[in-house]
Amino acid sequence: MTTTESLETHFERTIEADQRIEPRDWVPEKYRATLIRQIAQHAHSEIIGMQPEGNWITRAPSLRRKAILLAKVQDEAGHGLYLYSATETLGADRGDLTERLISGKQKYSSIFNYPTLTFADVGVIGWLVDGAAICNQVPLCRCSYGPYARAMIRICKEESFHQRQGYELLMTMMRGTAAQREMVQEATNRWWWPSLMMFGPPDGDSPNTAQSMAWKIKRHTNDELRQRFVDMTVPQAEALGVTLPDPDLRWNAERGSYDFGEIDWSEFKEVLRGNGPCNAQRVAHRKRAHDEGAWVREAAAAHARKHREAA
Amino acid sequence: MTTTESLETHFERTIEADQRIEPRDWVPEKYRATLIRQIAQHAHSEIIGMQPEGNWITRAPSLRRKAILLAKVQDEAGHGLYLYSATETLGADRGDLTERLISGKQKYSSIFNYPTLTFADVGVIGWLVDGAAICNQVPLCRCSYGPYARAMIRICKEESFHQRQGYELLMTMMRGTAAQREMVQEATNRWWWPSLMMFGPPDGDSPNTAQSMAWKIKRHTNDELRQRFVDMTVPQAEALGVTLPDPDLRWNAERGSYDFGEIDWSEFKEVLRGNGPCNAQRVAHRKRAHDEGAWVREAAAAHARKHREAA
Amino acid sequence: GNDLASYCLMLGDDALIMSHRLQQWCTRAPELEDEVALANIGLDLLGQARLLLTRAGKAGTAMPASAGAAVADRPEDALAFFRDEHEFRNIRLAELSSHEPVDFALVIAQLLVFATWRLALLRRLTDSRDPVLAAIAAKGVKEVTYHRDYAAQWTVRLGDGTDYSHRRMQSGLDAVWPYVGELFDTHPVERALADVAVDPAMSRTEFDDVLTQVCSAATLTVPDIPPLAGVSGRKGRDGVHTEEMGFLLAEMQAVARAHPEATW
Amino acid sequence: GNDLASYCLMLGDDALIMSHRLQQWCTRAPELEDEVALANIGLDLLGQARLLLTRAGKAGTAMPASAGAAVADRPEDALAFFRDEHEFRNIRLAELSSHEPVDFALVIAQLLVFATWRLALLRRLTDSRDPVLAAIAAKGVKEVTYHRDYAAQWTVRLGDGTDYSHRRMQSGLDAVWPYVGELFDTHPVERALADVAVDPAMSRTEFDDVLTQVCSAATLTVPDIPPLAGVSGRKGRDGVHTEEMGFLLAEMQAVARAHPEATW
Predict the structure, then answer these.
(1) Which DSSP helix (H) or strand (E) runs through B257?
(2) What residues are paired with A211 via a beta bridge?
(3) What is the mean pLDDT of residues C107-135?
(4) Is the CB of D39 less than 8 angstroms away from the CB of A80?
(5) How many CB contacts within 8 angstroms connect chain A with chain D?
(6) pLDDT digits (tens, 9 = 90+) for A94-146
């Protein structure tokens, strides 16, 4: 009991001093569970997020864009790998987490439950979805748990790169044909509101935020981050020449921020509950790939066993 | 012994009198075996022949052509059905024949081991391949075995229709763009020689012909039919405006027929031996469809059993 | 006017895309009899699509700009081969791919739902004030009755066949069910065309009755699975499709688009 | 001259089409590590394709007429997206589809054969009198060495893994083997470009040695299956492809062709 108390004190002091918790350090079970869940969910999001973009690799209309897109999707697989590794430092197991993903026990970012309908979606995902992800993730680079914070530093660097590439694709398309400009506008219309929902429910409806902030896993509330994203994105939309689909969007000089319209939280909740346009498809696709890879993983394990025994 | 002799005499007299053998009639085992093999091979050809043409249904460039092609491929499935039924009147079993097809124990027409590479192939197959098939099959309408002869009457009628549709497609394409005309010429170049090979080896190399002709299963030799096809086709090519890829092709006024160049029998033998461009693909495709249908056929059988038992 | 054209596109695109999915079964069916039947159904729907797209053209649908000169007098081809994905108006159920990986239970479930729904629509449409639509519907009723019966018979055989086929057939129905809700959404175009179009919402009870009967005979459970959402509420009828649609169109349109000036 | 352009197309198309087949594995690999590896190999080959198609353009390959104005200054895109099937010069091995139905053993066998062959070619090509080709080859050698090693490692793991994986891997090799013969046919263009191109026939022994070694370590049998015939002797290098190629190109080219005047 005394040991636990002193461990707990040590943990709390480390957090308070803004120092990093490392794998060897004692942590409260709820801190561990919260982190595993959050990092796993983040890892799952990277892996599921490969699908909507991967959908366009074989059809990318220039070889340069094809290479950029393929590299981006590959990076996402890499991010998934780092993040699953980070959960392993907390005692989780990758196979077990994958099972939780494909059985629907763990979530991933709801944004990936929307379909990608034209090649412009590739650019808009880079611009808006990666943009929102960065807003969410930059503060995580200072997360109290060391391995997660370090993974986030690397991931954020790559995400910014992706975001610029997405924006650059849109810039090119906006300088192109009328059909291309329409595609960009139409994709923006579809992705804008779901991007705002990426920050999660409004602060009043987000019961876990307080504890996560106390533990310095989270540094800002959902609404703070959402506002930051809007303020960052509106001028980008203007530079691009697209209209954001919100008639209530306007500069509020008093607040020094943009006011924006009401989010349709009922849609958010439906998608979260599994009833978005692609939830079933995304999980089924991942499950199929996992199931169809089972014999390959078994073969690799059998081979490794033989090899060890022979050595 | 005496019975067999009288049965045999009866069989021979029927053949001699150009009358039909019917399922109830006694026939020599070799006649039965020859017919089963020939009709099964013909049925297999209809079924495998669906693949090269079926390959273009989803890509047909007009809805009218799509409907014509789909109906044609459906007719081929229908022909396969009649012909398998005809073998059943001789005591064969459809499932067993299908096994022989997918295990490579029975052949089908070698022509279907060539790929269809452009939409013009659909027209050229109608014109040349169906044209050659008709030359082969019209005499079979007078075959000594009744059920086969009657099946051939129906099949030949439909094949003539297909042949005219193929030719009409080519006519339309030849009146079209330069690219379309090139496609037709190029497809003609690829299919001409394989079509000539459809009549089988030269008479000198065709050991079974004599017996089949004696039994009035076959009515003309391979070379006779081939010559008939060439004589019929050359004027059609001229009307179409395509060149047949044979520099030795010319009218022989003395014979009242077209002379034509040497056929590359080594290619024919290679394809027959299984080494054509599509042999493995065609059989594997048929095998996969059959294997993947197994559970469906089992379910239907199980349901029928339950139904019978309940009745 | 324009609403009539849009309505013809909806019904025509449903038939065109569903026909495409059946065409992809060609040479893949479990028995030759099914090869013939699936092709037959595909042909019927293709025929309906041709009539309806032609009618859409006559009713004033704008022809796609990329359709070459040769296509101008064949509106059915201009519309089938030169529209872009977002211009197609079919319900998303028709897009579902069942042939790769091969899943006979899925195509049967898809066809059962599609044909039961379409039959109910076409029956009502025989009373349309538009004589062309009424005639197309009358012809279609006979065809689609056969489609529904074919699918229902297989549903029963598979549902009440082996344990394995029972599981497969139930999975097929479950996979198709999220696409059912959309079929009965009343579209503004349908509302605007009173007496000409039919309101699909009116046929929901009939549909549920048939499905309940078939499932009961097949010892299957009518699924209780919520409908697939749209994107901001926009679904197939609004030109918002599934991710499979782009691949389907790439294949269907490739040859026609490579030769925009050609006639075939 | 024109032979050089044709030669660059051959090597470029091999890489482009093989890369496409690897791209189709994206989100389907058995492990994340393989997801990363297959994408990486696809990217390397895509990079090689871009350099080689660009070189083909500079060496005087005629640009396809249907390529819009915007594409004129990007020959790699004009050639990739606006050539028709018969203008592609890749060997048929690269066209083999392995992702639908999903077959990891098949893609590994395809990659093992492709990379072993290409590595032998590129090694010799580093001595080409054409400095651009020599430089592309030198870069490629490093990349393709990794591709070959990756495929060889999996061949061994699967061949010497479980009984089931052994059977699958042997089937994969058997399925690929008919496409091997074509790889070592000397093409007239290669003969005409002495000191610039390499004669693939020279690499057959090296190829056989590597395959024998890998198969031996994997407890597999080097297949003894005759090569796939061409059509009147014409094969991939002559623009005569397998039936899968048309579907591959329909997908790859759909968006680019829908917008011929666009830049991306």
Answers:
(1) strand B257-259
(2) none
(3) 98
(4) no
(5) 146
(6) 999 999 999 999 999 999 999 999 999 999 999 999 999 999 999 999 999 99
CA distance A215 to chain D (A): 31
| Chain A residue nearest residue C66, CA to CA | A179
Is the previous residue joined to C226 through a cis bond, with omega within 30 degrees of 0? no
Q: What is the mean pLDDT of chain D?
A: 96
Contact at CB, C243 and A190, closer than 8 angstroms: no
Contact (CB<8Å) C50/B57: no
> Helix, strand or coil for residue B190?
helix
Residue C163: both structure tokens together: 């344990």
- How deeply is A247 buried, as exposed, middle or buried, from its count of CB atoms within 10 A (0-12, 13-18, 19+)? exposed
Report helix angle C2-23 to B63-88, nearest 10.
Answer: 30
Low-confidence ranges of chain B (pLDDT < 70): 1-2, 4
Contact B62 C47 (CB under 8 A): no
| Euclidean distance between CA atoms B271 and B268, whole angstroms | 5
Q: Which residue has the tokens 């579902």?
A: C96
pLDDT for the residue numbered C43: 98
Q: What ipTM does this complex have? A: 0.96
* Per-residue pLDDT reduced to its tens digit, B110-155: 999 999 999 999 999 999 999 999 999 999 999 999 999 999 999 9
Q: What is the CA B110 to chain-centroid distance, rounded?
A: 9
CB-closest option in D84, D101, D251 to C250: D251
Alpha-carbon distance of D23 to D17, in angstroms, equals 10
Residues of D with CB below 8 A from A84's CB?
32
First to last CA, chain A: 46
Q: Is the pLDDT of residue C1 over 80?
A: no
Q: Do chains A and B touch (3 or more CB pairs under 8 A)?
A: no
- CB count in 10 Å sphere of residue D19: 27
Q: List chain D residues with CB under 8 Å of A116.
A: none
Q: What pLDDT does C71 receive?
A: 67
Judge: C249–D254 Cβ closer than 8 Å, yes or no: yes
Q: Which residues, numbered 37 to 66 in chain D, qualify as contacts with chain C under a Cβ-Cβ cut-off of 8 Å?
A: 66
Taking an 8 Å cut-off on Cβ atoms, the answer to whether D232 and B193 are in contact is: yes
Whole-number Å distance between alpha carbons of C105 and C111: 10
Which amino acid is located at A85 in the chain?
S
- For the entire predicted model, the pTM comes to 0.96
**Bridge partners (DSSP) listed for residue B145:** B21
Q: Helix, strand, or coil here: A250?
A: strand
Handedness of CA C24, C27, C28, C32 (dihedral sign): positive
pLDDT value of position A190: 97
Q: Which residues of B touch C33 (CB under 8 A)?
A: 81
**Alpha-carbon span A3 to C101, nearest angstrom:** 58
| pLDDT surpassing 90 at residue D257 | yes
Say whether B21 sits in a helix, a strand or coil. strand
Q: Which residues of C touch A (CB under 8 A)?
A: 85-86, 178, 226-232, 240-243, 246, 250
Question: What's the rounded Cα separation, in Å, for the pair C69 and C71?
Answer: 5
CA D21 to chain centre: 9
List CB contacts (< 8 A) between B267 and chain D. 229, 232
Per-residue pLDDT of A227-281, as tens digits, reads 999 999 999 999 999 999 999 999 999 999 999 999 999 988 989 999 899 999 9
> How many angstroms separate the CA atoms of A282 and A254, rounded?
43
CA-CA distance, A77 to D30, in Å (whole number)? Answer: 12
- Chains contacting B (3 or more CB pairs within 8 Å): C, D
Residue C83 has pLDDT above 80, yes or no: yes
- Which among D171, D231, D253 is the top mutation candidate for probing chain B, defined by the most B β-carbons within 10 Å of its own β-carbon? D231
Dihedral sign computed on CA atoms, order A24, A29, A35, A36:
positive
Residue whose C-alpha is closest to residue C92's, from C214, C181, C225, C155:
C181
